[in-house]
Amino acid sequence: YVPPQVRRAEETLDDKKREELGRLKKMVNGLINRLSEPNLSSISGQMEELYMANSRKDMNETLTDILMNACVTAVAMPARLIMEHVLLVSILHHNVGIEVGAHFLEAVVKKFDELSKSDAEGKECENLLALIAHLYNFHVVHCLLIFDILKKLVSAFTEKEIELILFLLKNVGFSLRKDDALALKELITEAQRKANTAEKKIQDQTRVRFMLETMLALRNNDMRKIPGYDPEPVEKLRKLQRTLDFLVHSAFKLNKETELRVSLESLLSADRVGRWWIVGSSWSGAPMIDDTNSKTQQKLHIGKVSSKIMELARKQRMNTDIRRSIFCVLMTSEDYLDAFEKLLK
């Protein structure tokens, strides 16, 4: 039972919070609508002030919602517009904190995963992929995520996936070659193998041949073979990013430390296993595995060691299978040789 006066206070608080969020959304929306290359510096400064004046959670959610609504539509968005929006996220990621880029990246990747599984006819997937590609171009995320997405697309290898592979390689192919040439070579070999074993109707498509030619051009570092490839806009905005970062910090802070080295699997299972890539990210789940797995694993262990040891392991917060196993081995071994043998097993 909630007394009426407490209920009234809670309702007033909710209304006040809703009003504040509405005001914040209007302010952020106004800034995003005016965003362009010349005023990027002043708008990023105003956004930083809003981050200082409001809670990070509210700001991250508001900014992500507005950017997603602006960039993820059923029609293909202009590349320049997407680049400018992502550059703003990158500047905030480096100047405010990595949780800004992390929150936006997670929302984009989850939306992409959801739409790639559906039969959507629009260009939403391309727009989301462009956002991810430019997050990599502007040093928010590491190439590990891009390779994970490419591997996933190559493993499916349908017409839609081939289109997306081409789109992604055109945006970030040469950067991937610079960052990890070996991984790109392996990906090209896998794509060639898939193309050879694919159905006849897919094999004969000019799109598949064009994709393989593009991949070979990337491997040979031959930019002329890729039609419509123009690195100029990205390079120009990268230069602007370095200038802005230099003005704010009086030293180049755009280094590898701020890049999120996170895999596709980690992002998609963030709600279940926590966000290890954000320092201080609170998470209520324990242990960091599925409940079903933990129950079956626990039964397995209880058969081998006494329930007293398992209870002790739980009290000592041994919250994963491997930790529990090592703890039980150490507690039940006769001597160091016995412990060594058990740990090897």
Automatic annotation (TrEMBL):
The record's keywords, sorted A to Z, are: Coiled coil, Nucleus
Q: Which residues form a coiled coil?
A: 181-208
Offer one Pfam family short name for this entry: MIF4G
Q: Which SMART domains does UniProt cross-reference here?
A: MIF4G (SM00543)
Recorded GO cellular component terms are: nucleolus
Molecular-function GO term, any one: RNA binding
InterPro entries, alphabetized: ARM-type_fold (IPR016024), CWC22_splicing_factor (IPR050781), MIF4G-like_typ-3 (IPR003890)
Which GO BP terms, alphabetically? ribosomal small subunit biogenesis
Location in the cell: Nucleus, Nucleolus
Query: Where is this chain primarily localised?
Result: nucleus
Q: Where is the signal peptide?
A: none
Domain MIF4G, chain residue ranges per copy: 25-222
Q: Which family does it belong to?
A: Belongs to the CWC22 family.
Q: How does it assemble?
A: May interact with EIF4A1, EIF4A2 and EIF4A3. Interacts with PPP1CA and PPP1CC.
State the protein's purpose. Answer: Plays a role in targeting PPP1CA to the nucleolus.
Q: What is this protein's name?
A: Nucleolar MIF4G domain-containing protein 1
What organism is recorded for this protein?
Probosciger aterrimus
Cite the source lineage: Eukaryota, Metazoa, Chordata, Craniata, Vertebrata
